[in-house]
Amino acid sequence: MTDLTRLLAHEMADRLRAGEISSHDLTLAHLDAAEAGNHALNAWLTIDRAEALRQADAADTRLAARDPGAHPLLGVPIALKDLVAVRGGQCTAGSRILEGYVSPFDAHITERLHSVGAVILGKTNMDEFAMGSSNEHSAYGPVANPWDLETVPGGSSGGSAVAVAAYHAPLSIGTDTGGSIRQPAALTGIVGMKPTYGRVSRYGIVAFASSLDQIGPFARDVRDAAALLHAVAGRDERDSTSAPVAVPPELLELPASDDEAAAGLKGKRLGLPREYFVAGMDPDSRRRIEEAVTGLEGAGATVEEVSLPHTDYGLATYYIVAPAEASANLARYDGVRFGPRLGDSDVLGNYLATRGRGFGPEVKRRIMLGTYALSAGYYDAFYVKAQKVRTLIKQDFDTLFDEGFDALVAPTSPTVAFRFGAKMADPVAMYLSDACTLPVNMAGLPGISIPCGLSEGMPVGLQLIGPAWSELELFRLSRGFEALTADAAWRSMEPAQIALTTDPAQPTPTERASALASVP
Amino acid sequence: MPGLSRSDVEHVAYLARLGLTADELSLLEGQLNHILDQYTKLAELDTEAIGPTAQTIELENILREDVVLPSLPVEVVLDNAPLVRGGYIVSPPLLGEDSGR
């Protein structure tokens, strides 16, 4: 009998419609996998078995009606990052300061997922308030990467990436402020997209940096990721930054045939930004990107070396703008209206205690940076300067797309997944993990990471970056690359340590991280 | 660019309403200065004639109809408050003798 968890979402949809399987059985298989794997992986903060099965049964009723207009996600399980509001459930954003909070409403994307009939299995682990590149900054412990359990899955959407990579769910939702979907997708060998700023409503999502945050899909193939974006994208009056731009129905019609998908690459004009091969980039990861470029050229695309001259200023710019916005957004966590209230003195004393103990070290660091950058006397020198450099970074991209490039091809991450603790002592080293992804957020553009092979047994991600609103084109190009590599040996490989993840005798990620920390 | 002193770090922590321990303040002093060093790179660029970018997708003034929409019931919202009395959230006094300031 087929292991239902190994199917892709569109294969699940086909079998659900054909009546070969029920959403109830499909959901049960995934709940069992998630519960069995969570000890060794810690990808989930909550798994709601009863509610998921209730949604699955409702989906089975809808499937029985055989509505030809039903969305392909009807009856298909999905995981949500624990910063998406689901009525009646927790929404910790990976932080102690939201412990005990129960959401009184659904996020816009939760409503959308309910309306198409997807089955929400639970909420996934993440770096606190989405600040981090390794998921080690979660207040609820780190997440292990199923390719090597002593390594991180990337972050901040590490739990959502691992839930999909480890077959706990075919689909999940993440958010990406500087790379938090694309980098963990790369490090766990799956597909992850950050759409154009404004493509998906953020109503009901815990805010980090409001001019950068965007919601996007994780999946094990390109068609599934496109279908999930289709389900959640589009204008919503409750988020004034969600754009009145039509969501293309063709997101559901990417070619199933590899020949057709690969043929779509012919004549495409791609740019290879030389600045993205940063100093410190792992040479073997670089070779995988170069091989991918050779493959794309072989399929009839032209790839030209191009320059994004302000790339090198991206990190400093991002680490002014994002913490500044975060320090303002996180001012709401004051222990007055919701969340734990610590301290028993005056208002100020309670603020200091609640925020001092409720936030973890990385969140405090960023609030400090942002508060400093916005404080009297430094606002012009830091924040305004960074916003001006942001203009230059955006103009770099605009220039290339105006010249007619269909997309840019680049690495997603300078390295493959690193060991627990490797970058925890040096915040700047951790921040450099996002050097290839954060300029895309600064410019508000869509970017996707797709698997392009292995380096010493660990996944490498290829990033495609397009002009605003070009998600459909990025998915078509990505589907083309997927088709080109359909027969590659690495395509059919499961994460190398997947079998260990269901062994209850294995250490937890927290235990592994502390064992590694004690090695001199 | 001058670095942050210990008292600067304490002042920023106060502005941010973060109660930090002595150990946290010491660690942050070093880390924040290391991060601020990275910012100096931006001074290489002449941005005198460049406008700032605050938002990237060139939308302007999207308005909705000025109509009342349903909102959450008060009791549902108050369920999350740490201390509630008579339909209000209770907090220590902000002004006056009992405020502590």
Rg measurement of chain B, Å: 23 Å
Distance from N terminus to C terminus of chain A (CA atoms, Å) equals 48 Å
Helix percentage range of chain A: 25-40%
The side-by-side strand order for the widest beta sheet of chain B comes to: 1-2
- Largest beta sheet: strand ordering of chain A: 1-3-2-4-6-5-10-11-9-7-8
Profile the largest sheet of chain B.
2 strands, antiparallel
Distance between the termini of chain B: 35 Å
Helix and strand string of chain A, N-terminal first?
A: HHEHEHEHEHEEHHEHEHHHHEHHEEHH
Structural class of the secondary structure composition of chain A? alpha/beta
Q: What's the main sheet of chain A like?
A: 11 strands, mixed
Number of helices of chain A: 17
Note down, in words, how this protein is organized.
The complex is a heterodimer of chains A (520) and B (101). By secondary structure, chain A is of the alpha/beta class. Chain A has 17 helices and eleven strands. Chain A has helices at 9-18, 23-41, 49-64, 108-116, 158-165, 182-188, 222-232, 258-263, 283-298, 314-329, 347-358, 361-374, 379-402, 427-431, 438-442, 471-484, 509-517; strands at 44-47, 77-81, 119-124, 171-176, 191-194, 214-219, 269-273, 302-306, 407-411, 447-455, 458-465. In chain A, helix 2 (23-41) runs antiparallel to helix 3 and helix 7 packs antiparallel against helix 16. Chain B is mainly alpha-helical and 101 residues long. Chain B is 33% helix and 4% strand. Chain B has three helices and two strands. Chain B has helices at 6-15, 22-39, 74-78; strands spanning 84-85, 88-89. Chain B has a two-stranded antiparallel ribbon. In chain B, a hairpin with a 2-residue loop joins strand 1 (84-85) and strand 2 (88-89). The radius of gyration of chain B is 23 Å and the shape is flat. In chain B, 16% of the residues are buried.
